[in-house]
Design brief:
about 190 residues, Protein Transport Mog1p, Chain A, eight-stranded antiparallel sheet, two-stranded antiparallel ribbon, 5 helices, 10 strands, globular
Length: about 190
């Protein structure tokens, strides 16, 4: 009987704790953060249906002439306080790009911090062989890892009152470069409202 009472008490305590993910002082209630990240999708990007509930948005950026694959841009949101730290995500992204001379991608990457419409944004831009664990979207079924050797990744972490959003663009270097201005405009359109 004591075991049942202990288990029941534990279950009630756990249930009560899971209802409020933000710790507050007694008598204070945290107001839920209202608002969403909004942005303008550049002309020419193909809007795709996100194939995961972690993906807020997903786009195909049509390939540049001569490239064998399209580029893909994905916006991820895992929830407030979720998705890992800024540095953990930067490190993970850089580890997905292998340098032909064996040097760390950290040495070749361009990492910048800026503010866009009041939001802190960290951007990453790096070239290399993409080894993100899967073939690039848009790549032919016969694509081999050698096909991913001249890739470029542009990524961003957008910090909002609701938590961090993660933007990741990967594709052949020429295709990603073709969409540089559109990508920059896309990032600069981010607003939390």
């Amino acid at each position: 009987m004591k075991t049942i009472i202990v288990l029941l008490s534990t279950a009630l305590i756990c249930t009560a704790c899971s209802r409020n993910s933000v710790a507050t002082a007694p008598g204070n209630k945290a107001a839920p953060v209202k608002g969403e990240l909004s942005y303008t999708v550049p002309e020419g990007w193909q809007v795709e249906r996100p194939n995961s509930n972690m993906r807020v948005a997903q786009y195909t950026l049509p390939r540049a002439e001569g490239d064998g694959a399209d580029a893909e841009l994905v916006v991820y949101y895992f929830g407030q306080g979720q998705g890992g730290s800024r540095q953990a995500n930067i490190d993970r992204w850089l580890n997905q790009m292998q340098q032909s001379d064996g040097s760390p991608s950290q040495e070749k990457a361009k990492i910048e911090n800026t503010t866009v419409n009041g939001l802190a944004v960290t951007t990453v831009d790096v070239l290399g062989k993409y080894n993100g664990g899967m073939a690039s979207p848009g790549a032919s079924p016969s694509a081999t890892p050698g096909d991913l050797s001249n890739y470029r990744m542009r990524a961003a972490i957008v910090e909002t009152p609701k938590g961090m959003y993660f933007v990741k663009l990967t594709g052949p270097q020429n295709t990603v470069s073709r969409w540089d201005q559109a990508y920059t405009g896309y990032i600069n359109s981010f607003e939390f409202k």
